[in-house]
Here is the input.
Amino acid sequence: MTTVPVERHPWFPVSDCGQECLGPCATRRVADALTVGARLCRLGATTGRLVATLVADGTMARLLRRPRRALRARAAGSLLAALGIGVVVDDRRSDPHANGLIVANHISFLDVLALALVSPAAVVAKSDVVDMPVVAGLARRFGVIAVDRGTLRGLPAAVGDVSARLAAGSSVIVFPEGTTFCGRTGGAFRPAFFQAAVDAAVPVVPVRLRFVGPDGRAATAPSFIGDDSPLDTLRRVLRARGLTVVVRLERVEVPGADRRELSRRCERVLHTAESDIERSLI
Here is the structure.
């Protein structure tokens, strides 16, 4: 099948991470065939139950009466557990229930599952991912906000949508790097969606995501980089041993009046958090 390349504008987000970032750490600790088979079975069964629950006649109407957070968190937790990924949440916010713009570094499509455990927020996602079969239906159910990374024409409308949701009291998750990195390094934060927090006058919660191995150091197996397909990432995760995703929620940042200053401030917070973590491992 021929892949149609995405058109690139001058501000198109590009990751400098590739297959060389995987190295031996991605495959050094490999689960045995029995473990991989068991994970595949659990993943298939869990996915089947979730899809059946979401699309069965009359079930969705009943589920929507439940707290949205409980539904999303339960689904996300089940999928991560099926993949053999543990979860650690380090919440440093003074008010864990405060709503606002949530900004996180971006490593993998699994980031969305990790964040769903701590917030019921809608997620801004690339339109080429949202349009994938099956994913499209689930995305609509959970209020995903699609943005076309290949053009800037739709960006103001997407920022306006996020701003309206924030002003209405909802939270929204954004990955301001605009693309994925291996987890050992990251990219600069792009300021566009920070404007939504400025316009709505809501706080911003920086979140540091890390996938780590048994030694506590960054694991690149879950990353979605280079020429990876979702299946490539899934294969590595299924074969990895002792993976944990660490979700570190930092103290909230006031929006201020300048989106660029706000984006730089949040970027510094997450880079400082990463430096603190690395020093603790020395």
Q: What stands out?
A: The two ends are 47 Å apart (CA to CA). The chain has a mean pLDDT of 82.
